[in-house]
Design goal:
By secondary structure, this protein is α/β, with parallel strands linked by helices. The strands form three sheets. Strands 1, 4, 5, 6, 7, 8, 9, 10 and 11 form a nine-stranded mixed β-sheet that branches.
């Protein structure tokens, strides 16, 4: 069974504290989320395949490496947009897809409203990014959508996960590993993660 990796890093713990604070302004929240996403990206991309290439240093020939695998980053709109820059810092050649989903506040089920994906999903490692893994509905729906369009290799990357979301994602897509900054306690009766950090999309864009 794929793992849940909770990244243990002092800078990530510091950034997560800033993101959890109620009084953090949206500009600081947005920048800190991007910084935290970069740390998560560094860990999530640890398993990418490398290909050796001959190069010349100023002194002599040697062997270097480049990525063998194409990288596609797919944020789940809208909050996932806040994590994209953290990934392209390391892989500027990555292609970016977009999946739009919102949560029905009565059923807590995801509703699709937008999809724009680059070609070559079947040949790429696809990183699906969303700050929150709550019920798992959006994550499962996104992976369903991507698999239907040929995607084969995925990692789901989030900032904060709830046990219910991890269980739902692993039950439906046992081949997809999860990388997170924290595994929180539980969902409340509105399906928000506790202690969590509130509505990430509202806090990124200043719409709360």
């Amino acid at each position: 069974m794929p793992t849940l990796t909770v990244v243990d890093h002092p800078l990530l713990a510091r950034d997560l504290t800033i993101l959890r604070r109620r009084e953090t302004p949206h500009g600081t929240f947005r920048k800190t989320l991007s910084d935290a996403a970069a740390i998560l990206a560094y860990e999530a991309m640890r398993g990418l395949d490398l290909e050796p290439v001959p190069i010349e240093t100023p002194l002599e020939p040697t062997t270097g490496y480049h990525l063998r695998t194409d990288v596609i980053v797919v944020p789940i709109l809208r909050a996932g947009l806040g994590m994209v820059d953290g990934f392209v810092r390391f892989v500027p050649e990555a292609r970016i897809g977009h999946l739009g989903m919102y949560r029905d506040e009565k059923t807590f089920r995801p509703v699709d409203y937008y999809s724009n994906l680059p070609p070559g999903l079947d040949r790429a490692h696809v990183f699906i990014v969303d700050p929150m893994l709550a019920t798992g509905g959006s994550a499962v729906g996104a992976i369903d959508h991507l698999k239907e369009r040929g995607g084969r290799t995925f990692t789901f990357v989030c900032l904060v996960a709830a046990p219910e979301g991890v269980e739902a994602l692993h039950a439906t897509h046992p081949d997809v590993p999860i990388v997170a900054a924290a595994l929180d306690r539980q969902l409340n009766d509105r399906a928000y993660i506790c202690p969590g950090l509130g509505d990430a999309g509202d806090r990124i864009f200043g719409t709360h």
